[in-house]
Amino acid sequence: MENRPTRVRLLDAAHDLMLTLGLARTTTKEIARAAGCSEAALYKHFDSKEELFVRVLAERLPPLAPLLSSLAAEPGRHSLEENLTEIAHQACLFYEQSFPIAASLYAEPSLKRRHDEAMRERGTGPHIPIEGLDAYLRAEQALGRVRPDADTFAGASLLLGACAQRAFAYEAAEERPRAAEFATRLVRTLVVGLAV
Q: How many Cα atoms sit within 13 Å of 119 on the Cβ side?
């Protein structure tokens, strides 16, 4: 018998199924079956498939939100370029893994609407990392490490948008630019417009 806790098995099963089938085609019944438990057991741990999706993003993908929060709380650690490169690298990995999961939402408008409503109710969504990076850049701006006239929201949007685009644009390509190298090149270009 499986000795991992039910919640862990459910998250692992949801992650695997959402990666292979996409969020829209993955059902709670399939997740429960893959985890070796009942659908009722799934609902003891998670209110909905949307909550399960949010938990998969938070607990099974590279930790983008905690990194942004810690940097915004303690600006000035390391150089601006080093911090932004680490953010870009984690964002590349996060979007690379989350894109296949979330992409199927766009094929079913009614599911997308329900999903968006659930995200708003939980105070989460794809805009949260942009707001987190904007907060970090504003904190660095207050320390004088980002130009006072720099548009921090635009900078955050450009950096994270490029990382998300890397996941999307190279999905069908034979080879995707390596995350670390992409992050370094991206930040070197962006810092020209932000740094003092």
A: 16
Residues 52, 46: Cα–Cα separation, whole Å: 6
* CA separation for the pair 145, 154 (Å, rounded): 17
Q: Which of 134, 57, 55, 132 shows the shortest CA–CA distance to 93? A: 57
Question: The tokens of 45 are what?
Answer: 């741990």
Name the pLDDT band for 58 (thresholds 50, 70, 90).
confident
For the four alpha carbons of 119, 120, 124 and 129, in that order, the dihedral sign comes to positive
Q: CB neighbours (10 Å) of residue 123?
A: 7
**Burial (CB count within 10 angstroms: exposed 0-12, middle 13-18, buried 19+), residue 5:** exposed
pTM for the model = 0.79
- Taking Cα atoms as reference points, which of 175, 161, 184, 21 lies closest to residue 95? 161
Residue 138 CA, chain-centre distance (Å), reads 21
pLDDT, one tens digit per residue, over 82-132 is: 999 999 999 999 888 888 777 777 777 877 787 788 778 878 788 889 999
